[in-house]
Design goal:
four-stranded antiparallel sheet; alpha+beta; 479 residues; elongated; 60% helix; two-stranded antiparallel ribbon
């Protein structure tokens, strides 16, 4: 039997950043490590450009300091003539800086724009990837569950009251759905009894399994929506999946007693606790319950869904789902409303919430937890403050060495507070992958920035020393 996706048709993202990330992922075999290494490479390359920019800025600052007395005189002389003052200041800048003044400003502007372009294009790309991954992972679980129900339907072949087949399900704790992938990547699924260990008893033949990927066979033409082809019973819509659910899980109207529409497998089975001990009722008698076919099918199906979830989920350290924010208020398995909001209504078909409730509620009870503890946002804020502190500390030392005392303005102080908080908010409200990118970038910048200033100071000091030696040589020649 085959299942073709018709629910979440979000296309796999493409673009330069996605291609680059995939190349890193192919090497690291881990999406988070790919982002970390990519960020380090970006920062190292950017450091070369940024060092040149910082050197130009320092050179301009030095010239600015030298001409400051003349600027003050111009301000005093043309205090009431702003247009003339601006003209005279530009003439002074051109006299001492020449084309380098405007060139330096242009370079800094270009670098700032490039930095913003990298930040927001990568931000957009990772958000698009997050939506795709959420869609992909949900589809993967949904179609695993649907395949399991499909195998049950094939097994009973329309006769859910077949005593012989129902007897096999009484041993449901030893039944499982086995998914087999061949060398070519083709999947099949079967219902097997694993009670005898290695000697598995196949209750069904290996049935073709097609997940939410499109069929690669160019000659294949699927049946019309809602119809089943004569050869392999392909599921083509939510309508078909809902029909499977309704066959196995009866719907009770208000006032109807639960269990009255169910097929009973085991009557009055003794309830046991986690240790296998009988659970007693208030009178000290063994607590019993009826086991229905729907109970058995759900138990076997959810074991397979949980297995697929455990093997396919993308976690990193304390973060259970990297495509969700590192926050204790965010669950690692998203609610239906959260998935709908993330993907948009145009990707959700009729009946999707009922399908979600059929298996995701059980999975959430089994596996969902707080996705994080605000660790990434807090570390990003702290590292950002540390980076700015180190830069300010270095600048103070340089100014002190040059005999200058420069005080931060109110705007500068506020920016040093606001920027780290803004970065922290990005990490708080968006996916953890982007937060890891920001954190890695902050850490690398904190390490590289002091080295950049050290290199710039060395170059600047060497040039000043050479200039002073030239002046001394010229002075001695006059005598």
């Amino acid at each position: 039997m085959a299942i073709i996706s018709s629910l979440l048709s979000i296309a796999e993202p493409s673009g330069a950043w996605i291609s680059i990330i995939r190349a890193f992922e192919a090497v690291t075999n881990n999406y988070v490590l790919a982002i970390i290494f990519l960020t380090v490479v970006i920062r190292l390359i950017w450091a070369v450009i940024d060092t040149f920019s910082k050197y130009s800025q320092q050179k301009m600052n030095a010239i600015q300091a030298n001409i400051q007395p003349e600027l003050e005189k111009l301000k005093a002389k043309y205090a009431n003539q702003p247009q003339v003052l601006s003209q005279k200041q530009n003439e002074l800048y051109r006299k001492y800086m020449g084309k380098s003044y405007y060139g330096g400003c242009l370079i800094m502007l270009v670098i700032m724009i490039l930095n913003l372009v990298i930040f927001f294009t990568l931000f957009s790309g990772l958000n698009t990837m997050a939506s795709y991954k959420i869609s992909y992972n949900y589809d993967n679980l949904k179609y695993t569950y649907a395949n399991c129900l499909n195998v049950v339907d094939v097994y009973f072949d329309g006769d859910y009251n077949n005593e012989e087949k129902l007897n096999a399900f009484k041993d449901y704790k030893n039944l499982e759905f086995e998914i087999i992938t061949d060398e070519d990547g083709n999947k099949t699924i079967a219902l097997v009894n694993i009670k005898d260990g290695e000697n598995k008893i196949y209750l069904t033949e290996k049935i073709e399994y097609i997940d939410n990927f499109e069929r690669e066979d160019p000659s294949y033409v699927p049946p019309a929506e809602g119809e089943v082809s004569e050869d392999d019973g392909i599921i083509t819509s939510n309508e078909y999946i809902l029909s499977l659910i309704e066959k196995i899980f009866p719907v009770y109207e208000e006032g109807e007693e639960f269990g009255t529409k169910e097929i009973i497998l085991i009557k009055d089975q003794i309830v046991t606790d986690e240790n296998g001990e009988p659970v007693l009722d208030e009178n000290g008698n063994n607590l019993t319950q009826d086991i229905y076919l729907s109970t058995a099918v759900q138990d076997i199906s959810m074991r397979k869904v949980t297995e697929v979830y455990d093997t396919s989920k993308e976690s990193f350290l304390w973060i259970d789902n990297i495509w969700i924010a590192d926050s204790p208020t965010a669950q690692s398995i998203m609610s239906y409303s959260s998935i709908s909001a993330q993907l948009g209504k145009k990707y959700i078909q009729d009946g999707e919430e009922k399908i979600y409730d059929a298996f995701m509620i059980d999975l959430k009870e089994e596996r969902s937890r707080a996705n994080g503890y605000y660790v990434l946002p807090l570390i990003i804020i702290l590292v950002s403050f540390l980076s700015m502190y180190l830069i300010n500390l270095h600048n103070k030392k340089r100014n002190k060495k040059a005999g200058k005392e420069v005080k931060n303005t109110g705007a500068t102080k506020w920016m040093q507070i606001i920027l780290p908080i803004v970065l922290g908010l990005f990490a708080l409200f968006y996916n953890s992958v982007f937060a890891i990118y920001m954190l890695t970038g902050q850490v690398v910048a904190s390490i590289i920035t002091p080295l950049q200033y050290l290199i710039i100071d060395k170059i600047y000091d060497a040039k000043n020393k050479k200039k002073e030696e030239k002046i001394v040589v010229d002075y001695t020649r006059k005598f």
